[in-house]
Amino acid sequence: MYDLYLGGTHNYPVDRAFYESAVQICPFIPDLARHNRRFLQRAVQFTVNSGIRQFIDIGSGVPTVGNVHEVAHEIEPDTRVVYVDNDSEAVVTAQEILEDSAVATAIPADLRQPDVILDHPDTKRLINFDEPVGLLMVAVFHFVSPDANPHALLRSYLDRLAPGSYVALSHITVDDATPVAREQLENLERAYGSTSNPAYLRTRSEFTALFDGLEIVEPGVAYVSDWRNVQPADPHDPARPCGYAAVGRRL
Ligand SMILES: C[S@@+](CC[C@H](N)C(=O)[O-])C[C@H]1O[C@@H](n2cnc3c(N)ncnc32)[C@H](O)[C@@H]1O
User: Fold this and answer.
1) Which structural domains are found in the chain, ordered by start?
2) d(CA 225, CA 162)
3) Helix, strand or coil, per DSSP, at residue 138
4) How close is the Cα of 120 to the center of ligand 1, in Å?
5) Binning pLDDT at 50, 70 and 90, where does residue 220 land?
6) 139 lines ligand 1 (CB under 6 A)
7) What is the full DSSP assignment across 1-64?
8) Is the alpha carbon torsion for 112, 211, 136, 242 positive or negative?
9) Which residues of 169-192 are buried (b: 16+ CB within 10 A; e: fewer)?
10) Cα(77)–Cα(191) distance, rounded to whole angstroms?
11) 199, 143 Cβ separation under 8 angstroms
12) What are phi and psi of 69, to 5 degrees?
């Protein structure tokens, strides 16, 4: 679905059918996906420029142009990346693309099983847990239900990472949406509720609480479109206020 929102080619008829109805329900959803993808890329640039040389990208999705390792390697070619997704098709495609890479790989696993991800042989091969890590969970926590306790889940990752590690998160929201955009995104949330991947909108305070105990780097919690963006989105763009982003540093 996300690949379709971004205009990609790695998708299937079942996705395309849901995509058609998703865009009818919420016409600005592809714009929000593009804002989010650019946030991911700026967050990787920021983190590599802060000295991080290894990433775990959970909910990485179908590999598409401007992947984490491509963005990181423009700055530091030795940066190691472990991609993780619970969509086996996305992981198989990623493994094919990364077949010849010595510094990046993809594993099938669920965000809700931190030990499976952190103890996976490929993770242990590429990630040195004595050094800080860039943990990317971009546009994925909205697929984690309140019952799964997102805050405790994030802590169980951070407890295993060295001080100085960074975590980048983004999340859909309707806090500041226009009334029309709010209705459209809430209708889309309901539509996702009937799929195998229900999505949950969260408020600014719920999103910010995920960073408890971390130092949130400048500019703090921002719209995905605006986080460290020299060209923030058009203020009239309905997608602009519909995603929060922030990067935290483990102390
Ligand atoms: C909206 S895409 C985000 C892709 C990428 N992180 C980005 O922001 O450009 C969400 C991805 O998270 C994956 N996902 C959803 N729930 C997950 C879970 N519980 N564990 C691992 N991956 C999950 C989906 O399969 C999808 O590929």
Assistant:
1) 2-250 (3.40.50.150)
2) 29
3) strand
4) 18
5) very high
6) yes
7) -HHHHTT-S---HHHHHHHHHHHHH-TTHHHHHHHHHHHHHHHHHHHHHTT--EEEEET--S--
8) positive
9) bbbbbbeebeeebbebbeebbebb
10) 41
11) yes
12) -65, -30
| Closest ligand 1 atom to Cα of 37 | 9
Among 208, 239, 209, 202, residue whose Cα is nearest residue 224:
239
Report CA(139)–ligand 1 centroid distance (Å): 7
pLDDT band at 10 (very low <50, low <70, confident <90, very high): confident
For the chain, what percent of residues have pLDDT higher than 90?
86
- Given a cut of 80, whether residue 153 has pLDDT beyond it is yes
Neighbour tally for 203: CB within 10 Å = 13
State the average pLDDT over residues 192-212: 94
CB 53 within 8 A of CB 134: no
User: Which position has the token pair 């991080």?
Assistant: 52
Instruction: Say how far apart CA 160 and CA 181 lie, in whole Å.
Output: 39
Q: State in Å: Cα 203 to ligand 1 middle.
A: 20
pLDDT of res. 67: 93
